[in-house]
Amino acid sequence: MTIHPTPIRSASMAARRPEPLTVQLTSALAAQNAAWTFDNLPADARMLVRQCLLDWIAVTLAGAQEPLTHMLAEEAREQGGFSHATVVGHGFATSCRQAALVNGAASHALDYDDVNMSFTGHPTVVLVPALLALAEARGASGADFMTAFVAGYETLCRIGAAVSPGHYALGFHATGTIGTFGAAAACARLLQLDADDTATALGIAATEAAGLKAMFGTMCKPLHAGRASADGIMAAQLAARGFTSRSDAIEALQGFAATHGPDFDPRAALRLPANGLHLRSNLFKYHAACYGTHAAIEATRQLCEQHRLTSSDVRRIIVRAPASSDGVCNIAAPRSGLEAKFSLRHTVAMVLAGVDTADMASYSDSATNDAALGGLRERVHVELVRECSALTQAEVEIETVAGTRLRQRHDSGIPATDLAVQQQRLEAKFRSITRSLLDDQSCGEVLDLIERLDELPDLSPLAGLLACQPPRTRRH
Question: For the residues 338-347, what does the mean pLDDT come to?
């Protein structure tokens, strides 16, 4: 990776004319989605589904205690509804759509959930809430859940690839927009819809999809994930009832692609991913902040460890990050814990101060407004670099008090190749996050159920464990 120190103020992108269509993309993706079966899921894909579910449970149990989740849960209680699906961490059940909305927002509330850069978004937080709610209501098996997850994941990433990078660069939060397609596709597969009805579900999703990056740092960002999940359920269920939509909603004149991005490329959606499956490029978070900050965090951490630096040794830090960071994770002076998760300056300052960036408590409002940490933040300068396009890359340069200049580059966009090691890291993350939320017995039961996911006749045992209210709640 080469990053040239040419700072710019904002990203620029020339719009490209879309290529003439030679394929009905929506129908083609719907046919692929409907063709997935459990038997044709590779062994590593099954393991990755389990890992995505484990990670989702951890961040959702913790996110269930956030103020925004309490507000959504209270709204769901007031509205009422048939008790079809569990609201994680709140001790009650409600309609599938309401459960998906609350659980989806909870799972994205801490911004500690997984990522896939093919659509620059968070896949599991839109897929699992919808599938868990629908599977619980319908008594679907663990194998059905796994099949639908992979189907939805691949369809989501394929649509994202077709409208990237322009869609995200325009200001759309792909988790909310593209995520709606993914949730609809996953639920369509769980409902065993054929290709035609799946295309209808994707069409309904196309007109529901929404989410603005301008909302980053507010409660609306996690709401995007919840809405995508809830709207995806509705799209699939309406399609199953015979509701109509366009079967070419993605590629149609004035359809989703034409109105949501300048560089639509249907061939990118149909191209075989480099690893054979988009799921194999799933990235898990080990810092409780926006993924766009992770490369800078890692580069700073490596320099501090290699050269045994403390904050008193550092005169100035320059973070060279992609221009696209400006609308994602470049809040210069965060005022809340939520805003701190989207601040390159602040997260790098946390590393300098020896603050644990993996600990969710490090992102409280009080910690963010700590005077000493604010002083360190003033030493951090961000340069946005035109030549670097990948949001997962960064270069950090530290100027020491002694006058030495140290540089380190990092790319956080490389997926793990050793899934056993990744499993160990995810289990450690799970136990760390849930240590005050689940007792040891419940924690062990969750891990066991996930390990036997493909053998479960239904998901009610898992949902039951997730329904329990933790012994103490955490509010900022």
Answer: 93
